[in-house]
Amino acid sequence: MLQLYFFPMACSLASRIALMEAGIEARYHLVNIWTKKVIEDGGDFCEISSKGAVPVLQLANGERLTESAAVLQYIADLKPEAGLAPPPGHLDRCRLQEWLSFTGSEIHKAFLFPTFWYKDDASKAAARERIGKSVSIAADHLANRDYLVGDRFTVADAHLAWALLLFRRAGVEVSNWPSLVEYLARIQTRPQVKAAIETEMALRKTMAV
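User: That's the sequence. What structure does it adopt?
Assistant: Structure tokens below.
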């Protein structure tokens, strides 16, 4: 059985969504990313992954994958019939990787990471000033389409939807981009997406963070 190490409402939410959308059973291990402890047994999370970051997906053979782009594509390829990723060799597979990379670098690391982790206000303000251009690229792309890649939901949508959910907490309103408001609302109508978010929101409250 797959095992996912996660922190509620962190980027690992996208991996939970992918697992649920694919109908793949998994065991979930809650991690406190601030203390680097695995909640269920108090174990050192850095012994699971030296990066000390979620998601970490442990495979049935004991090997572990890190980084959202890799984890999400692995999950999608376990159940190709779910259509969560275009097949390898198809141009849209490169488009999928393009959007996974864009969300990971231009939105997550360039904006969300600084606003949640940096202590000085100047760095946070600089990240907020830069984010408009990057988000506008996604907004323009989604102005006349329902999903990031092709004509169906993929793991790239799980990744971007997670990022957009955190915008308000990071001090930016998604309402500045109407196409993203509609996009996020559409993604959240999916039963598995809704269930994944509700599960992690409930866990987040219990951790008081």
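The two ends are 29 Å apart (CA to CA).
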